[in-house]
Amino acid sequence: MERLTAEEFRVADKTALVLVLDNVRSLNNVGSLFRTADALRLEKICLCGITGRPPHPELHKTALGAEEVVEWAYYADTIDAITELKKEGAFVLALEQAEGSVDIRKLSALSLSDKPHVALVAGNEVDGVAQAVIDLCDATIEIPQKGTKHSLNVSVAGGIALWELYKQLDHNPQYRQ
Question: Is the peptide bond before 173 cis (omega within 30 degrees of 0)?
Answer without folding.
Answer: no
